Amino acid sequence: MKRVTGIGGIFFKAQDPQALGAWYRQHLGIAVEDWGGAAFRWASPDNPTGTGTTVWSPFKADTAYFAPSTASFMINYRVDDLHALLAQLRLEGCQVDDKVEASEFGKFGWVFDPEGNKIELWEPPAGQ
């Protein structure tokens, strides 16, 4: 079974996400969109059409989305089969969040590394 197939997103806390996004837009040329982040499109041997994306997004400093982790960042990793990977991680003794979310954006699950960092696992919708 494949585990991680790429980075789906990089999320980090910011005191002023809008101002920080504007700085990244101006000085580094990141195309920050109205929703506050940017989507980098890419291609790979498994995805020659380049339909995948990596999202870059600052979150408000007081976001609860990373909880219970106290880290100022969270990385989202792309996976092929979220439910199979979560089951395997549980068998391996990893701390896995019981919650799994599904939406038009795909399936999302979470695991914690040994230092308590929350890691988001994302199975994109078919074709993405």
Automatic annotation (TrEMBL):
Transmembrane segments: none annotated. This is VOC family protein. Residues 10-121 form the Glyoxalase-like domain. It comes from the Bacteria.
